[in-house]
Design goal:
Largest sheet: none
Pfam family, one: MFS_1
Strand content: under 5%
Helix content: over 70%
CATH class: Mainly Alpha
Number of strands: 0
Keywords: Membrane, Transmembrane, Transmembrane helix
Oligomer: single chain
Number of domains: 1
Distance between the termini: 25 Å
Organism: Hafnia psychrotolerans
Protein name: MFS transporter
Number of helices: 15
């Protein structure tokens, strides 16, 4: 009977892909069409990201403690959808900022909740394989919506993405209710395999003392600082161009998403398949190597066709990290009862980088009038993340550069 819940979980990941990020890359396009400047858009994205940061670590703690993980996903999806729809009717500064704050806070709960449900159903042995399937379906959902958005934006304009997102939100709620709550072992979901073992309360500073967690978190902070702004920048560069593109801004944004998601699907499945053979550390190393090359190619982009190699590389890096990072954290903290809190802490550090990235890139573009210089700056940051992982990652995660713990 668990097979049915796992199948529904895959569908949940498919539909929630378009809900979790709100408008995502279409936010920049939508606001540019309402005469917002690059630095203003970057700051709004940062405000939403920072709001999500405040909820990220508590979200992991809540998922560890609660038995209502499905309700968390449903509530978050509804809040994100209604706050995003408000933008269409009231694209004012106050509404946009409030919408991004609500979206950031609600989205923070989704990833640890899905990870907790997955681990609670599969246990440690089946977690990595199911996470690979989860990510593959998640990327498939992003790609499907991107293709639909490209067509609808071309025909009806950027506003069509609001309808697509609402439809996906309804399907997300239905799929969440389809997961059998009796098949979720909430003790296993937090990293306690035996129910008779003592449950140690989560202590924030105790988690900070784990060197492997600190190295992983700080490396991913720099990764997302270098990575998060690149897709919005590509979209806004075309939207603000006067050279005459063969793509509309909305269609271009949809294509950037579709290309990367198409690559992420097989990469996620392959990562789940080969993690036991090559180790999480080596796979994460590949993702870190890819990012500087992506930024370098983007810096030379004089036309819209640069999106193909840039987004293909993004698909490789994101596809690996989406599976390898939760697998690494689940393995490191198995038996502690703190898996989702630890994952929340890593997501907090990732979010710091991701939320600051648009503001950094937007400021560089606004004050230098150079898209290329902004991409080069992000590429240098990516190299720093790579160096930290190579030097310190091998010192504190030696086992995970070979074989993960069983």
């Amino acid at each position: 009977m668990k097979l049915r819940s796992l199948q529904v979980l895959c569908l949940l990941n498919f539909f929630i892909a378009d809900v979790r990020d709100g408008l995502g890359p279409f936010l920049g396009i939508f606001l540019v069409s309402h005469h917002w400047q690059a630095n203003e858009i970057g700051l709004v994205m940062t405000v939403g990201g920072l709001a999500g940061l405040l909820a990220t670590f508590p979200s992991g703690m809540i998922v560890d403690a609660t038995r209502y993980k499905r309700l968390l996903i449903i509530t978050s999806s509804v809040l994100i959808t209604f706050s995003t729809l408000a933008l269409w009717y009231f694209p004012t500064s106050a509404v946009v900022i409030l919408s991004q704050i609500i979206t950031g806070v609600a989205a923070a709960i989704i990833a640890p909740a899905i990870a907790g449900i997955t681990l609670g159903i599969t246990g440690q042995k089946g977690f990595l394989d199911q996470m690979g399937r989860n990510e593959a379906f998640n990327h498939s959902g992003n790609m499907a919506v991107a293709v639909l958005a490209a067509l609808t934006c071309w025909i009806w304009g950027t506003g069509s993405v609001f309808l697509l997102m609402t439809t996906m939100a309804v399907c997300t709620v239905i799929c969440t209710l389809g997961i059998n709550k009796k098949e979720i072992d909430h003790n296993v979901a937090r990293g306690i395999e035996k129910q008779d073992g003592p449950v140690v309360p989560v202590q924030f500073f105790a988690l900070l003392k784990r060197p492997e967690l600190a190295v992983t978190g700080f490396t991913l902070l720099l990764f997302h600082l270098a990575n998060a702004a690149q897709l919005p920048m590509l979209s806004m560069q075309v939207a603000s161009s006067t050279s005459g593109s063969m793509f509309t801004p909305g269609t271009y944004a949809a294509l950037t998403v579709a290309i990367s998601q198409a690559v992420m699907i097989p990469v996620a499945l392959l990562t789940a398949r080969y993690a036991s053979q090559y180790g999480y550390g080596r796979l994460i190393l590949i993702a870190l190597i890819v990012l500087p090359f992506r930024a370098a190619i983007a810096s030379f982009g004089g036309n819209e066709f640069v999106l193909f190699p840039v987004q293909a590389l993004d698909g490789i890096a994101a596809g690996i990290l989406g599976v390898a990072v939760p697998g690494l954290i689940a393995s490191l903290f198995n038996g502690t009862g703190h898996i989702n809190a630890a994952l929340g802490l890593v997501m907090l550090l990732q979010g710091v980088g991701a939320s600051l990235s648009p503001a950094l890139a937007g400021a560089i573009v606004s004050y230098t009038s150079s898209w290329s210089f902004a991409f080069i700056t992000l590429g240098v940051i990516a190299l720093c993340a790579l160096l930290i992982w190579v030097i310190f990652g091998r010192l504190v995660l030696k086992h995970y550069f070979t074989l993960p713990k069983s």
